[in-house]
Amino acid sequence: MTTAQLVTPAAPSEASRNAQRTRKRIANALLNTKGLIGLTLVIVFTLMAILAPIFVPEALSTKIDVTARLSPPTAAHLLGTDQLGRDLLFRVLLGAHTSMIIAVVAVGLSIALGLPLGVLSGYFKGWVDLGLSRLVDTLLSFPAILLALAISAVLGPNLRNTVLAIGIAFAPYLARIVRGETLKVTSLPYIEAARSQGASDMRIIRKYVLPNIMAPVIVQATISIAFAILAEAGLSFLGLGTQPPTPSWGLMIQASRDYLDVAPWTALVPGLAVALAVLGLNMLGDVLRDVLDPTFNSDR
């Protein structure tokens, strides 16, 4: 394909056809067993996160009934109650709102931080790449959960700081992926063709680089939300995340430690919610990776 062909009006039509084929592959992948289970779980927990605050008043999740302490699942309390007599169903539903919102916003923050770092590093190379790569490598030298713990400990335990801690801890992983994809894209002929026509660096990045690296970013974001849910639960369990009385799956598991022998459902219910949410997101991320990442498919 010549340079002239790359810039002809026919190119958008080819891009449109490629987009249609990609959407068709995604739809077919989501209809197989793995994709369908993952998508169903993600939809269920997303609806829980969105609708729970509307249909479940916070007063129901914090209502204390000492006469029903550590009650097993019954018709009155479908998932049982905790050590204070609070209904676990209501707390799990509102906990979904807390955990999902924190995870999504934290991953959004990691994209806002990691995407520019990765693009600038991979596009400009040279000393820019050297400086930014050393910064990313320094952050990557710490496990994400350890870095999140340190940031949360410094900033203080609350919901906002939990989002900041998780978002900053996950940003280097995204930056490294984006840098690699940007290096691949900038080595392609159409980038040189755009430069030869006088396109500015910002225009090339916006029009040619970003659209061609978004597929792995979407995959990584989906998987990162699953890890962010785990990170939020871990921080809350250790007392460095969401604070009472806000319902949180991690807080529920932490509060159940002393009652596992007499009321195991107090830990099983929020633990199962975390497991299913993470399972659904990981399965959906795997399906999207199979469709959107041809390099992964070819290597496998």
Explain how this protein is built.
With 300 residues, this protein is mainly alpha-helical. It has a domain at 102-299: Orthogonal Bundle (MetI-like fold). It is 77% helix and 0% strand. The protein is built from 13 helices and no strands. Helix 5 runs parallel beside helix 12 (265-292). The model is unreliable at 1-12 (pLDDT under 50).
Task: Give me some keywords for this one.
single chain; 300 residues; mainly alpha; MetI-like fold; 13 helices; elongated
CATH class group of the domain at 102-299: Mainly Alpha
The CATH homologous superfamily name of the domain at 102-299 equals MetI-like
Using only C-alpha atoms, the radius of gyration works out to 23 Å
Count of discrete alpha- or pi-helical segments spanning 4 or more residues: 13
In a nutshell, what does this entry contain?
The protein is mainly α. It is built from 13 helices and no strands. The chain is 77% helix and 0% strand.
